[in-house]
Specification:
The chain is of the alpha/beta class. The protein folds into two domains: about 240 residues, Aldolase class I (TIM Barrel, Alpha-Beta Barrel); about 55 residues, Arc Repressor Mutant, subunit A (Orthogonal Bundle), CATH 1.10.10. It has 14 helices and 17 strands. It is globular. It binds iron/sulfur cluster. The site of iron/sulfur cluster (SF4) has 10 residues, from loops.
């Protein structure tokens, strides 16, 4: 089964750390984008999909009618399963309970709320447009609007963050009626204002303490860490993101979107004007001709992505699919990692422990085929 990712490339204002492709939201651009998106969606042969994910950018800048239009088009052109997970990212700065009701009625059944932090000082360091109260209110409004699958998205390693502020964020998140929490460590990306210099980034030891404090608290509160940065309460994993970590298949629409058929990966340029140009009219012919080939899915990718999850990798599966298994040296290295508490191994499965998640880069650089 495929997943379908839709990139909505609009934001009110660019955050100084953000590397996702987005441009300023303007009405005429958004209209043009929706038309071109429709033509891109229909340019691909129909697939059967059981997840849809509207990400960005800021999908919640789209009015509910536009979201309905996109989902209706997907349903009429592709085979979207009845019980499909349909996720949408939403920014607390751009939603009300009415728009949330509209998204729910349009068919969105999972909401990912970009809170980042609940501490005013940390939100200010990130240049976010919403307040901590907005973030809490959005989660409560989403429940009221009928969402029973809500994720709170947080960020770790924010400038000036400490283990104490991290614990407070974990406490607030876990106290809300949410089913899922994502917490990614801030990455300084080239080309962003933060890359020109930002003060107060916690050092490695503090980051490690923040991460372990966060994970430990969520575990006490009944959350299962099913991926390095993702936690679920009640088993509601993000089925769409699992397709990425399991090297599955998905179509990606919109400027800057990526896709994979499970064997090859492709990306569409990060350019709205190019998108409007390529798909301004219905198109026919090879649907991949406007995409770049990004590479082939290989054992290295399967190991790197699979080890992000708590289920880890099946060595038998990787051998069957890619013909790779660890050599003698790598086996000895894995045994040492197991003794040190970073890895857990059975005859077939290989997983990282929580301590292993923290040093996953070093482990992967030794292990990767
Ligand atoms: S972090 Fe989110 S809201 Fe901020 S610029 Fe990036 S996509 Fe837009």
């Amino acid at each position: 089964m495929y997943g379908i990712y839709i990139h909505v490339p609009f934001c009110i204002r660019k955050c100084p750390y953000c590397d996702f492709y987005s441009v300023a939201a303007q009405e005429d651009r958004m209209r043009g984008y929706l038309d071109a998106l429709g033509s891109q969606i229909c340019s691909f042969p129909p697939v059967s999909a059981d997840t849809v994910y509207l990400g960005g950018g800021t999908p919640s800048l789209l009015p509910p009618e536009a979201v309905r239009q996109i989902l209706d088009l997907l349903r009429s052109h592709h085979r979207i399963a009845e019980e499909a997970e349909i996720s949408m990212e939403c920014n607390p700065a751009s939603v009300t309970v009415e728009t949330l009701r509209g998204y729910r009625a349009a068919g969105v059944n999972r909401l990912s709320v970009g809170c980042q932090s609940f501490q005013p000082a940390l939100l200010a360091r990130l240049g976010r447009l919403h307040t901590a109260e907005d973030a809490v209110r959005t989660v409560l409004d989403a429940r009221e609007a009928g969402f029973d699958n809500i994720s709170v998205d947080l960020m770790l390693g924010i400038p000036d963050a400490t283990p104490e502020t991290t614990l407070r964020d974990a406490e607030t998140a876990a106290s809300l009626p949410v089913d899922h929490i994502s917490a990614y460590i801030l990455k300084i990306c080239e080309g962003t204002p933060f890359a020109d210099g930002v003060e107060g980034i916690p050092d490695d030891d503090t980051q490690a303490e923040c991460y372990l404090t966060f994970c430990g608290y969520l575990e006490q509160q009944g959350f299962r860490q099913y991926e390095i940065s993702n936690f679920t309460r009640g088993g509601k994993t993000c089925r769409h993101n699992l397709k990425y970590w399991n090297c599955g298949q998905w179509l990606g629409f919109g400027p800057g979107a990526h896709m994979s058929n499970g064997e090859d990966r492709y990306s569409y340029p990060r350019s709205l004007s190019r998108f409007l140009n390529d798909y301004g009219m219905p198109v026919s012919g090879d649907p991949l001709r406007f995409f770049s080939h990004e590479g082939t899915v290989d054992a290295e990718e399967a190991v790197i992505l699979g080890l992000r999850t708590d289920k880890g990798i099946s060595l038998k599966e990787i051998r069957g699919r890619f013909g790779w298994s660890p050599d003698e040296r790598q086996r000895r290295f894995l045994d040492q990692c197991e003794k040190a508490g970073y890895v857990s191994q059975t005859e077939d499965r290989l997983c990282l422990t929580r301590a292993g998640f923290l040093v996953s880069n070093s482990i992967l650089s030794e292990l990767c085929p």
